Amino acid sequence: MALDGIVISNIVYELNQLITGGRIDKIYQPENDELIISIRNNKNSYKLLLSALANMPRIHLTEVPKKNPLNPPNFCMLLRKHIIGGKILKVIQPNFERIVEIHLEHLNELGDLCVKKLIIEIMGRHSNIIFCEENDRILDSIKHVSLNVSSVREVLPNRIYTYPPAKNKINPLDNITSEDFIAILNDKNTIIHKALYFTFNGISPVISEEICYRAGINSSTPTSELTDSDFTNIYTTFESLMNLIEKGDYTPNIITDEEGTYKEFSSIELSSYGGDYESIDYESISHVLDSYYAKSSNTSRISQKSSDIKKVIATNLERCYKKLDLQLKQIKDTESRDKYKIKGELITANIYAIKEGDKELKAFNYYTNEDTTISLKPNLSPSENAAKYYNRYNKLKRTFHALTEHIKDTKSEISHLESIQNSLNFVEAEEDLQLIRTELMEYGYLRFRKNKNKKALQKSKPFHYKSSDGFDIYVGKNNLQNDELTMKTATANDWWFHTKEVPGSHVIVKTNGRELSDTAYEEAAALAAYYSKANNSTKVAVDYTLRKHIKKPAGSVPGYVIYHTNYSMYVNPSDEKVTLI
């Protein structure tokens, strides 16, 4: 759900309560479209998040830590230059729109007091963060919008900031009489549910549905079929809701289903959700948004940053699958090679029985104990006819051996690419993604690129679990990590687990000289199945052996090992019985 006008009004109310009068301490830009502003006020510190991410734009106080680039982007540097140490005067929401303006006071280079505006527009893919002077002249924005991008308005330095084009909607906080309210809705030739959010700013479909529910009206009823009593009930409900907002009487909450999955969030009670749904109330709308977006925001970021990798892998896998199909068809054509060898042998064995100009040879096939007929070229001698069949045999034999090697290489490449593809399912941070990108570069799937603004990334670490009886279990997130985990971290008497003939993670159980319990065996095997391509299956085969039996062939791709001494078990993929450290 996107932030509607009511949620934004709650955010503005909360920010005015907590950060108005505060001083800006630090400014970071962890992502191209995201700012973190550190604010001190009344001996408390707050972190204000402003995000113009297309599918999750938002503004709220946050407690989620963010990693910052070594070299701050230009927009961040400009903000630091102008407003570090600045005082927050007020936070406003113009016309109940999905826009928040933060008015700031600071001293310029001459020591004069100046006012600036930091504006965030929360409008899907058109979201933006804009820095303006008091007279609305744009100093810069986190996204530049030229006339080539939008014919409606430019958002560029030195242009005058204007609000996005209005859709002739009404501010719901304006004093609207019952008569005007009914007349406006009556003019809408649509169902009442749509009429409400088409008419008023900041009213989302969810809030429109809630108003209808509280008024006891079917939201799918056309406005032309509503009675005066129906309109009166809707107006009374609408007015009551707006009165709560004007008083700042909000109820931040998240709606979850039976499995605890987040479905919606709001700043008012959503009584239209009942039955199998539960409402969890929060003291702060910022806590709601922090909780709601914490995981999905990171997932969205990783998905966005891995899109090029996914495309490269998919393209190369498709190429390999097509190549393998062609190679298998070609090798099938070589299956008949032995019959040409036999024909050459039979011609040689009966060479004195062949007369000049014969078109065929009838001979006894001592391989099948049957008579057979062999075609001959009348313009060739018997020995030349035999050589023709031998040459055909040798050509097919060479083709067979070459194709056998090519098929082996193609299958190996497919296995490698599928293992990388599987690793993408378990990426949690940019450090994990960078290892995958490095592997693709090393094998020529991606070109090496120098990134001047690259972040100082921490070293990606494998997953660390504790078995239910206390054994340490480590799971590699990608091929490079699998190699390091198995070949460097694990010792000779540690146990190694991997799904049988299925791409997946290497799993290491540290024994520290102890004998591994049956429980630890089963839980480690279940983890190996869980972090594999077969994680949606049941009864997955998992091989396991001591680390000292694992060998890595010279020149093999990352993550590839061989072993000849092992055990196997069938398990259900799961991470439920172990504890993530």
UniProtKB/TrEMBL annotation:
Pfam families: NFACT-R_1 (PF05670), NFACT_N (PF05833). InterPro entries: NFACT_RNA-bd, Ribosomal_uS13-like_H2TH, RQC_Subunit_NEMF, RqcH_bacterial. Keywords: Protein biosynthesis, RNA-binding, rRNA-binding, tRNA-binding. GO terms for biological process: rescue of stalled ribosome. One of its GO terms (molecular function) is rRNA binding. The keyword rRNA-binding applies. Residues 461-555 form the NFACT RNA-binding domain. Belongs to the NEMF family. Associates with stalled 50S ribosomal subunits. Binds to RqcP. This is Rqc2 homolog RqcH. The lineage of its organism: Bacteria, Bacillati, Bacillota, Clostridia, Lachnospirales. The gene is rqcH.
